[in-house]
Design goal:
The structure holds three protein chains of three kinds.
Chain A: H1 14-18, E1 34-40, E2 46-52, H2 54-57, E3 62-67, E4 103-104, E5 110-116, H3 119-127, E6 130-135, E7 161-168, H4 171-180, E8 183-191, E9 203-209, E10 214-219, H5 224-236, E11 243-246, H6 262-274, E12 278-281, H7 284-290, E13 297-305, E14 311-320, E15 351-358, H8 373-391, H9 395-402, E16 415-416, E17 422-423, H10 428-439, H11 441-453, E18 457-466, H12 474-479, E19 488-494, E20 500-504, H13 513-525, E21 532-535, H14 553-580, E22 587-590, E23 593-596, E24 602-604, H15 605-613, E25 627-632, E26 641-650, E27 657-667, H16 674-693, E28 724-728, H17 746-762, H18 777-785
Parallel strand pairs in A: 1-12, 10-11, 14-15, 20-21, 27-28
Antiparallel strand pairs in A: 1-5, 2-4, 2-6, 3-5, 7-15, 8-13, 9-10, 9-12, 13-14, 16-17, 18-26, 19-20, 19-25, 22-23, 23-24, 26-27
Helix pairs in contact in A: 8-17, 13-14, 14-15, 16-17
Chain B: E1 2-9, H1 13-20, H2 23-29, E2 33-40, E3 43-52, E4 55-69, E5 73-81, E6 87-97, E7 103-113, H3 115-148
Antiparallel strand pairs in B: 1-7, 2-3, 3-4, 4-5, 5-6, 6-7
Chain C: E1 2-7, E2 10-15, H1 22-29, E3 48-51, E4 54-57, E5 70-72, H2 85-92, H3 102-115, H4 121-127, H5 139-153
Helix pairs in contact in C: 2-5
The chains are: A alpha+beta, B alpha+beta, C alpha+beta.
């Protein structure tokens, strides 16, 4: 371990954010910039009968107005992942137009863009656009969308299913095992729809430069290169080398800023049409209506146990809403990021999951922090606890009985699951043991039974999760339907003076890459952190990249940088050997210098760098310069895991839930910066608790969103949460150079079922075995009364 | 959204009925109404501006009356459009003689909203509706006072 | 309408539309883009500033209402390039991640510490109730404000 790796180095990006000097997209003003506003549908499903822009065109300051009739990207935005029907039929993939032309398919779908000199003028003029609609019946619930006679979202097909897919063992075999099981636990519930709610609303500025025919799009994305690829190749048909995407400071993403959105392409197209830059920044109401949502699974599940509590089979059927169109990664979320985790941390011998993914008249659904894995974890961790409750077993005991035994992935092989994946390394019981010790499990049980005597309702909930991160090996995801590779790019450019610029295809929108990446780069090169600069978020600067999501930045992006550092040191050694007049094999590299072993003869990194760029006295045949770029394609996913434990008290009179303690024991492999990992866990836990207790996007029968603002969509506030107690176990990832697994999503994956398990535990003696999320006081109170 | 309420008016059922059926009076007493144009028997075009607290908007659209039973009740059908969303409502109004010689007006119905009104306004809309209803009946009362004066 | 507003110690006079929010005024007219707009219902607090010494959400104050007042924004917190103790504490305790809610958090923290110089955890959480953070789970924001209180009181 070096000087910086493993230390809680304070973040270098903080000063600018703390002083109000961050540069988010909406903070950028370009000369001659125009502003835009959208006219959006007030209906979930409607025919557009007429769009009248005549009054709006006359309004002050209007520069241009475009409707679906204009030739803006007629192919629409594409989907990046193909998941076919289990019978071999191709996934149904509708066009997703930049502006709706004839038909509205979700509330808030854009009908017209109004571009004006100022934002106020654009908004004023947008109010003058008259749209005549014929409202049609809508369907928002994924299960109802598959019922006979449900309104069709796309008339091209005879049902709403985008695909019908399954994974795991033969269904009949699983059903037969359930028939024979000693006990079968059943669950039926909804993993409710959530709005990601990054605090910075989406914001875009498109600019077209007639000199050179070049486009620049400033965008709040997690994924600049992929946006460029999709927009150029599929939507607008632009040559990629003429398009630059800039995404510097981004105010949170949580998945919602991975995707290529219609507004990005529309603004880019419009910038050329009007010959001026055009800006659009979403307001929060628009964000609720147009940012991709998360979750929305309707679940029916059965898990069979033998008389000792060992799981013998697991069968689940789900309806997973896609929304009105297929967002970039949407089909992967309830399938390959979900079904592949159905093994959990247990030795379940027989597993079958069937997923029907219908279109609904709602905003598209896509990856939201955890993406498919929180939904899998919620199911497994709830149903095993419910099974224990029904069989009169302890929630910890049933888990110990079913755990996959520890394996390090080096001496012992990885664990082959029933659902395609092979786990890299794990020690699940160690994490649970640590969590229970931190809690004082036995003492808590005593306290709980004492409290019950006094009418107080205390509960504890355990969740022992696993997730698949670091996505991912390109060949694997390609075979699973991904239309992109999921490698990462890292370029290390040593400047002549020995200062180092690192260009990464990963993207930081809160994760602190500028600090963490610099930590390991400085350590590996033996130089000061101040001599390392991390650059990201500009396609003209960074060779290529696949962006940040799926907790992949360090595991994949970091590994690509390491590969380049290896190349730097290899070439550097050649230069050093020449300078020291020694054989390369006789050199060792440490603390920023090459030394001839057993002597005090050495040459510094800076000297070698300078020599590389001023190659007067230089090894024969060696190219000048010290600048390497590498693509790293991982050989497997990484599998972080852990134990989350929640302690709650339920108010006996009102059903209100107070989260009293939250213990998170996470194994994310090796840790580069504990402070940042803890921060990631805290934030993930808060979002997971939010789903358990507070958050839900609700649509009414007509497809109107009734939780479209912070007055009705309840996110966790400071007084909804306790201090979060974090612990780690460390099981290094055996297949990447840093031994890291990823920490971005763990908190959101493990926490939700822990909280719900705790509430059910608090009410277990009242006969409560399940409650539908979110656990609002009235929902809990009702459960208590039955 | 469910709409429900009642109000006692100090006039007989026949007086109240005549007032409700008179577009000129309706235009005067209905809060926010700027214009009420009779299109045909019991069909009106209405232009209104509603301003209550944070809710403000100009509405235009149709208003019609059906299922009329003289002096007993009718159904009011409202279809109004605005920039912040549209409202479609059916409200059944019943008149009953009260003990003190006045009229008990009860109304019940359902309103469907869309757009911003639905996503941001549902929570405050029921308050807005109850305020507007109160204003309506207060104005009716004043109208009755004027008549008896 | 003409307004004269003192922002971070400097006086500005502008002719503005009456409907312009104070947040927009700060961002667009004064280029003080540290004040962020995260919602449209006063729910998120990213736009929090101090107006005549009190924390307010500048998205729900009209610029004309601020006529004659003294405003401090996040850009006015550091003095001579030196971070305010609250800012320094946020860095020390990792009280920020994406940074978008951060200016509002720092400004509301100043208000909390003005009203509760020795705040309990409950005081802090109560005081933060009007401000959303989606990254930190508030844990380290609370720790930051606790540290700031200690530093200021020393």
């Amino acid at each position: 371990m070096g000087e910086f790796i493993g230390k809680s180095v304070k973040r270098r990006e903080d000063a600018r954010f703390l002083k109000g000097m961050g540069k988010y997209t909406d903070d950028i003003k370009l000369p001659k910039m125009t502003h835009s506003a959208f006219v959006r549908s007030p209906y979930a499903h409607a025919k557009i009968e007429n769009v009248d822009i005549s009054e709006a065109e006359k309004a002050d300051g209007v520069v241009a107005i475009f409707t679906g009739k204009d030739a803006c990207g007629e192919y629409g935005v594409p989907c990046g992942w193909q998941v076919d029907f289990k019978n071999g039929e191709t996934m149904r993939e509708p066009k997703h137009p930049l502006l709706a032309k004839d038909k509205i398919r979700h509330l808030g779908e854009a009908v017209t863009i109004v571009i004006a000199e100022t934002l106020e003028q654009a908004r004023d003029a947008a109010e003058l656009v008259e749209v005549d609609y014929e409202e049609l019946p809508a369907v928002t619930d994924p299960k109802k969308a598959m019922e006979e006679g449900a309104p069709l979202v796309h008339d091209d097909w005879d049902s709403n299913a985008a695909f019908d897919w399954c994974i795991g063992n033969d269904r009949a075999e699983v059903e037969a095992a359930l028939e024979k099981a000693h006990h079968v636990t059943e669950m039926e519930y909804r993993n409710q729809r959530l709005a990601p709610n990054a605090m910075e609303p989406r914001s875009y500025i498109a600019d077209y430069d007639v000199n050179g025919d070049k486009y620049t799009l400033y965008t709040s994305t997690q994924n600049p290169h992929l946006i460029r690829l999709l927009m150029c190749a599929f939507v607008l048909g632009l040559p990629e080398h003429k398009v630059r995407i800039v995404s510097k400071d981004v105010g949170g993403g949580f998945g919602s800023k991975i995707y290529h959105y219609t507004e990005e392409a529309l603004l880019t197209w419009a910038a050329k049409e009007i010959g001026r830059p055009v800006k659009w920044t979403s307001d929060r109401s628009e964000a609720f209506l147009t940012d991709a949502h998360g979750r929305d699974h309707v679940v029916k599940s059965r898990m069979g146990f033998d008389k000792d509590g060992k799981i013998v089979a697991h069968l689940t059927d789900e309806y997973c809403g896609m929304g009105a169109y297929l967002s970039t990664f949407a089909p992967a979320v309830p399938t390959y990021l979900h079904g592949t985790l159905f093994q959990g941390v247990y030795t379940t011998p027989l597993i079958h999951l069937n997923v029907i993914a219908p279109f609904t008249h709602t905003v598209p659904v896509d990856a939201y922090r955890g993406a498919g894995r929180p939904e899998a974890t919620y199911l497994l961790e709830r149903i095993i606890s419910k099974g224990a409750q029904e069989m009169g077993m302890d929630a910890a005991e049933i888990r110990y009985k079913n755990f996959i035994p520890p394996f390090d992935g080096v001496e012992e092989a990885g664990y082959q699951t029933q659902v395609a994946l092979q786990y890299d390394s794990g020690n699940y019981e160690a994490a649970l043991k640590k969590g229970l010790e931190r809690l004082g499990y036995d003492d808590f049980r005593k306290e709980q039974s004492e409290a019950r005597k006094n009418g107080r309702l205390l509960g504890v909930g355990i969740s022992t999760y696993i997730e698949g991160c670091g996505i991912a090996p390109s060949a694997v995801v390609g075979a699973l339907g991904a239309r992109a590779g999921l490698y990462e790019v890292g370029q290390v450019r040593v400047q002549p003076t020995g200062k180092v610029s690192v260009f990464t295809g990963a993207h930081s929108h809160g994760q602190g890459h500028e600090t963490v990446f610099a930590q390991f780069v400085a350590d590996k090169l033996g130089i000061d952190m101040a001599d390392v600069e991390i650059e990201h978020g500009d396609t003209d600067q960074v060779a290529f990249g696949m962006g940040t999501y799926g907790s992949r930045s360090l595991a994949v992006g970091g590994s690509a940088i390491i590969k380049s550092i290896d190349k730097i040191l290899e070439k550097g050694a050649k230069i050093a050997a020449h300078k020291l007049e020694a054989a390369e094999d006789d050199l060792e590299y440490a603390s920023g210098k090459w030394t001839v072993k057993g002597t005090d003869k050495s040459v510094s990194f800076g000297d070698v760098a300078l020599t590389a760029y001023v190659p007067h006295n230089y090894p024969e045949g060696l190219e000048p310069g010290l600048d390497f770029s590498s693509f790293y394609d991982p050989s497997n996913f990484t599998y972080p895991f852990g134990t989350h434990i929640a302690v709650v008290e339920v108010d006996a009179d009102t059903g209100a839930v107070e989260l009293q303690r939250f213990i998170a024991v996470d194994d994310v492999g090796n840790i580069m910066n504990p402070m940042i990992v803890e921060g990631q866990i805290h934030g993930g836990v808060a979002q997971g608790v939010g789903q358990a207790l507070l958050e839900e996007v609700a649509y009414d029968e007509a497809g109107q969103m009734i939780t479209g603002s912070y007055m009705d969509y309840a996110m966790p506030r400071a007084d909804d949460l306790p201090m979060i107690e974090t612990e780690n176990t460390v099981t290094p990832c055996p297949h990447n150079p840093l031994g890291v697994k990823g920490a971005g999503e763990a908190g959101a994956i493990g926490s939700t079922p822990a909280v719900v398990n705790a509430v059910v535990d608090a009410l277990a003696h009242l006969g409560v075995t399940d409650i539908q999320m979110p656990l609002k006081p009235q929902t809990v109170w009702k459960a208590m009364q039955n | 959204m469910k709409i429900k309420g009642n109000y006692k008016l100090p006039a007989s059922r026949s007086v109240v009925w005549d007032m409700v059926m008179d577009p000129e009076i309706l235009e005067r007493v209905t809060p926010g109404i700027k214009e009420l144009k009779e299109l045909s028997q019991d069909q009106y075009e209405a232009v209104s501006e509603v301003r209550v607290g944070p809710v403000k908007g100009n509405f235009t659209g149709k208003l019609s009356i059906k299922d009329k039973t003289e002096e007993e009740g009718c159904t009011l059908v409202i279809d109004q459009k605005s920039k912040m969303g549209n409202v479609v409502a059916e409200i059944v109004m019943n008149l009953a003689s009260s003990d003190e010689g006045g009229t008990d007006v009860t109304y019940t119905g359902e309103a469907k909203m869309s757009g911003t009104l639905a996503s941001m306004g549902q929570r405050i809309m029921s308050g807005v509706v109850s305020t507007l209803s109160k204003q309506f009946f207060k104005s009716m009362e004043e109208e009755i006072d004027k008549r008896s004066a | 309408m003409n307004v004269t507003i003192t922002v971070n110690g400097k006086q500005f006079t502008h002719d503005i539309e009456p409907r312009l929010s104070l947040a927009q005024y700060l961002r667009e007219n004064l280029d003080l883009t540290g004040t962020h707009i995260g919602c449209d219902t006063s729910g998120c607090g990213a736009c929090t500033i101090t107006m005549d010494g009190n924390a307010v959400k500048s998205c729900t104050v009209l610029a004309v209402q601020a006529d004659g007042s003294e405003i401090t924004t996040i850009e006015g917190m550091a003095q001579n390039g030196e971070m305010h103790p609250i800012q320094a504490a946020f860095k020390e305790k990792h009280g920020l991640q994406c940074g978008f809610c951060t200016p509002g958090m720092v400004m509301v923290a100043a208000d909390i510490l003005k009203n509760y110089p020795n705040p309990s955890e409950e005081d802090i959480r109560h005081g933060l109730k009007g401000n959303f953070c989606r990254c930190t789970g508030y844990h380290n924001i609370v720790k930051s404000i606790q540290l700031a209180a200690e530093t200021i009181n020393d």
